[in-house]
Amino acid sequence: MSEVNYEEIKRMTEEQEKTLRFDHFSNRDAWELGRFITDKIYAENIELAVAIRRLNGTIIYQHLTEGTNHINQNWMERKFHTVSYFERCSLGVWATGEGSGDLAEKNGLKKEDFAFVGGGFPIRLKTGEIVAVLTVSNLPHMDDHGFIIEALSEYLGKDM
């Protein structure tokens, strides 16, 4: 197994967050993005849970395929808390902590409420404002992140 380059992951995720931004994002937009992602999940024949939440925690889109369950919902909840608290994608936060998970303790947070793994991504407007959080769960954490980036790139028509 090769060494993880945390600096490269931090740089890569920062670039992804700068590029994958929206002109606007309404609840209707969340539904359209969620449907796009759900269609992609079924087209690729993968088992994945997906949720989009407002920063106040309100779920504005969620779908779980047959091979997912409440455990995936729990992971998405924890990824949501990570993204909304640190205002970064959860993989970027993971890389900042160099995979140690010590970020919860360092920030006075309960470990059980946060997930320092890939699979959570901020929905930002082009102004930089975070308006929602997209989470997925059920793949290995780097693949969860990769799926989000691929889906958002396709949806927004960006090359990543």
Can you describe this structure?
The protein has 160 residues and is of the alpha+beta class. The chain has a single domain, classed as 2-Layer Sandwich (Beta-Lactamase), CATH 3.30.450. The protein is 47% helix and 18% strand. Strands 1-4-5-2-3 form a five-stranded mixed β-sheet, with helices on both faces. Helix 1 (6-19) runs antiparallel to helix 4 (90-96) and helix 2 packs across helix 6 (141-156). The mean pLDDT is 95.
What is the secondary structure topology, with strand pairs?
Elements: H1 6-19, E1 21-22, H2 27-43, E2 49-54, E3 59-64, H3 70-86, H4 90-96, H5 103-106, E4 120-125, E5 130-137, H6 141-156
Parallel strand pairs: 1-4
Antiparallel strand pairs: 2-3, 2-5, 4-5
What distinguishing features does this structure have?
160 residues, alpha+beta, Beta-Lactamase, five-stranded mixed beta sheet
- Main pleated-sheet profile: 5 strands, mixed
- The CATH class, by name, is Alpha Beta
Given the helix and strand composition, which structural class is it? alpha+beta
CATH level-3 fold name: Beta-Lactamase
User: Helical residue percent?
Assistant: 40-55%
CATH superfamily: Haem-degrading domain
Total domains: 1
Q: What is the rounded Rg? A: 15 Å
Summed up, what is this model?
This protein has one domain: 2-Layer Sandwich (Beta-Lactamase). It is built from 6 helices and 5 strands.
